Amino acid sequence: MKLKTTLIKNAHIVNEGSVFKGDVLIEDTYIKEVSESISAKSADVHVIDAEGKYILPGVIDDQVHFREPGLTHKATIETESKAAIAGGITSFIEMPNTNPQTTTIDKLEEKFEIAAQTSWANYSFMFGGTNDNLDEILKVDAKNVAALKLFLGSSTGNMLVDNPEVLENIFSKTNLLIAVHCEDEATIKVNFEAYKEKFGDDIPIKYHPNIRSEEACYLSSSKAIELAKKTGARLHVFHLSTGKETGLFSNKIPLKDKKITAEVCVHHLWFTNDDYDNKGTLIKWNPAVKTKNDRDALWKALLDDKIDVIATDHAPHTIDEKNNVYTKAPSGGPLVQHALPAILEMYHKGKISIEKIVEKMCHNPAMLFEIEKRGYIKEGYFADLVMVDLNNPWTVKKDNILYKCGWSPFEGTTFKSRITHTFVNGGLVYQNAKFTNVKAAKRLTFNR
């Protein structure tokens, strides 16, 4: 499908550490020109006046669970990618713990086929490691797949990789970036049994961060980093949740030269254990939301560049599932529609600059995963763009939540910033709370 030529005029363009007033010309799928002033060359050019609005590169979310195949009562690639587009996320990397799990090449290709038919956003998937699928891991082409995901805690099915010899083998032999969930299962098990003995199944949710403790996180993260240093593997540690873990990471070298990187998720930057009384199991995540001191330390490490990426770990469950007692309520929640507005709220509070938001949510994921021609507002790059009105408040309500599960931990929250337009590969797919009939998503490719 031939896309229109679009000229965005008078925008505040946020890119590579600066904000400047200018225009962006989109031709077909690419950014043709970025300049202080561009004139429409013909009457066929679709002109959008962005006066007073900000243009950001499309957000790249490096960690989502869209639940397809096998768990589609919770979510689908179509429903969640659509919610992502409304939240300014134009590319996502999805996790392997679906049903069946993405631990063979055949199952991986089946997911790519589903996304090619239904996704609203650009897509890639992680391949899943187990204790016995090294042969399959070694077949994965690093140019076509985002990364290898290893659960070193909190896994589903047989995806807990807990055999030290297998782990060292994987770290030594794969040339894929290895992304890890780090929580020590043995520590968690001891903590859980103690609380289960005291409370039965109905453990008060406030004890969740005691069960999935700082010790469990730090022990697992430090072991993974030690193994990466020993083997030379390229390691990315997902969703840091403790201040203690931030000491494991460095800001001494630029991101492009780092072999060991880290991510923090929106919920760990927003909520604290004080919110369990009000939100209950709706904010039950693994790793757990912890203390205000932990949250403050995560913010400091993010701003100091010890933490490289902000992501969502979007992981929806139905409201009935979440409303169970502690032992039966699954961990995870939906976030892609509200992640960028939530972080922009922190910009309004003076916590982070808009340039830093773009660095952590757009530039760095593109650099870290070596994603081809995305994450920046540059001539010759794919036209994945988000237009934001920073002063157009709206409140999260049931009737504007797009997740298939129909709820959000941000329900009732008023955000000052609103996503007004989302472009994917040059196509205007979302405009003023409505989706257009343009679907322009592509499979992500990698410069490796």
Q: In a few lines, what is going on in this structure?
A:
One of its GO terms (biological process) is purine nucleobase catabolic process. With 448 residues, the protein is α/β, with parallel strands linked by helices.
Protein described:
With 448 residues, this protein is of the alpha/beta class. The protein folds into 2 domains: 6-55 and 377-392 and 414-435, Roll (Urease, subunit C, domain 1); 58-368, TIM Barrel (Alpha-Beta Barrel), CATH 3.20.20.140. The chain has 14 helices and 19 strands. Strands 1, 2, 3, 4, 5, 14, 17, 18 and 19 form a 9-stranded mixed beta sheet that branches. Strands 6-7-8-9-10-11-12-13 form an 8-stranded parallel beta sheet. A two-stranded antiparallel sheet has the order 15-16. It starts with 5 loop residues before the first strand and ends in a 13-residue tail after the last strand. The relative contact order is 0.17. The mean pLDDT is 96. This is Dihydroorotase. Keywords: Hydrolase, Metal-binding. Pfam families: Amidohydro_1. Residues 54-429 form the Amidohydrolase-related domain.
Helix/strand layout:
Elements: E1 6-15, E2 18-27, E3 30-35, E4 46-49, E5 54-57, E6 59-64, H1 77-86, E7 89-94, H2 105-118, E8 122-128, H3 134-137, E9 147-151, H4 164-173, E10 178-181, H5 185-199, H6 208-211, H7 214-231, E11 235-237, H8 243-246, E12 260-265, H9 266-270, H10 276-279, H11 292-303, E13 309-311, H12 319-322, H13 339-348, H14 354-368, E14 385-389, E15 394-395, E16 414-415, E17 418-424, E18 427-431, E19 434-435
Parallel strand pairs: 1-4, 1-5, 6-7, 7-8, 8-9, 9-10, 10-11, 11-12, 12-13
Antiparallel strand pairs: 1-2, 2-3, 5-14, 14-17, 15-16, 17-18, 18-19
